[in-house]
Every structure is written in C-alpha cells, then in structure tokens.
Amino acid sequence: MSAEVCRTDEDKTLAEDDQNDSNSGNMDQRFERITVPIQMIKGKRFGLGIMLVHQRIIVCKVDDESLVSGILKVGDQITQINGDTVTDKEKCRKLLISNLHKKGKADVSLIRPKTNDAICTIMEEIQLNKKPSIMKEDLKK
After folding, report:
1. What is the number of structural domains in the chain?
2. Residues spanned by the domain of 46
C-alpha cells in the first residue's frame, strides 16, 4: 500500500470516529458492516491475532491454512460474536473459542475497510499499536 493514498493525520479515523459511535448509525463510507460465519474444523489451528486499537478489536494477523483464513482479514474490526458485543481482547477470544467448541460455529460481525485509504489507515494503526494477542489455542480436540 503506498503512503500517498493515506489521509493526513488529522483526517485519520478507524471505521467510526468517537462522534459516530455504533449507536448513531453513521459510518465512514470507506468501511462496510458485514457478518461472517466461522465454522469449527477439527484439526485446524485458529490462526488469529487481534489487538486493541482506540477501544476497538482489530484483526492484526491471519495465518495461512487456518480456521479463519479466507474469512477474516487483517484490518477487520470485530464488533460482535453471535450478537454479543466485544470491546476487549479477552472477551473476544473467550467468545470465539467457546462458541466454536459448544456450537461448532461463530457468527462474527465486523467492520471491514473497503477502500485503499481505509486499509492504509488501519495498517498504520496496527503498526503503531503492535502488541497483538495471538490466539494460539488449537481447536484440535
């Protein structure tokens, strides 16, 4: 991603700025709200790294050949797991793993960047906040 597509520091926000929280219904048009299903597949690693950026759970790593490969993308902002709002890494991790073990699936609601400048903004935020919570727990039970 080239730096010239990025907005200036004053313009940079994540999917929603603090004035346009998820309750307002207003969202930056560079992002989209979607829900994706993650299915339990025995023998596959989870392969997901998440981090907290501006009080939002952001995907910062997706391992190849993992449970979430091709489903979640680096830069996705996880907002809910099966309808439960997530605002911290530990709750997100616990909800994902417990739903996959108990129900065999988890519906993940997220906000995904859809333009180059949005992706660039998120990638810069990830680099500035580089302390991921890697979910190494295997689901191979």
Report:
1. 1
2. 28-135
Does any domain span residue 61? yes
Q: Is residue 10 a part of any domain in this protein?
A: no
> Is residue 141 domain-resident?
no
Lowest-confidence region among 2-16, 57-71, 84-98, 118-132:
2-16
d(CA 99, CA 80): 12
Instruction: Please indicate, yes or no, whether the overall pTM of this predicted structure exceeds 0.85.
Output: no
Residue 11 C-beta-side C-alpha neighbours within 13 Å: 10
